[in-house]
Amino acid sequence: MLVDDQSLLRMGFRMVLEAEDDFTVVAEAGDGAAAVRLAASMQPDVILMDVRMPGVDGIEATRLITAAHPQIRIIILTTFDLDEYAFGGLKAGARGFLLKDAQPSELTAAIRAVASGEASVSPRVTRRMLELFGSRLPAEGEDAAEAGEGSAADAARIDVLTDREREVFFAIAEGLSNTELAERFFLSESTVKTHVGRILQKLGLRDRVHIVILAYEQGLARP
Fold first, then answer.
1. Alpha helices in 19-148 (DSSP H)
2. How far, in Å, CA of 120 to CA of 177, rounded?
């Protein structure tokens, strides 16, 4: 389902998606309130959600939809790469965040990733998060507790992970996909999925997006 208050943009997205054999656009909405209603009746697998819309905005619509229909996966689409939009959307339950000027191949890859249960966060957004929270990272030789209580608590939290799982955790926080993780660590994708599943289970997180949130919000990511 496409949600954007500009009909020409929805038309453009529809043209890109319907050129792919495995995509069908089942509905369109011009504002968040309509998106909430259509999500309930159409039950799309994935929603491309604009942020700034009249009335109910994309962040609130995402929160309402994911609360009522957790199986629906939402990708936030916006022209703004500011951290407040990325974090607001991800905390509201979105599974991905892309800028509207993403290449068609990047857009379709993100939809396929999110539909299969992965997260998709724009590399530019990942870098922006690192810039925002980088000042909270412990300096070389500094104890985590000195960097702040939240960082210390969550640094201790990830101590339950094995060395390999910690490596995968930090790589996910960089925005790497399963394929990229497999290439970096010379593992099969099935092994990567096993590691990701164990990380989520051990940390009590819902999905990969929450790994990114935990890592960046608490200053656990590595530059």
1. 32-42, 58-68, 83-91, 104-115, 123-133
2. 8
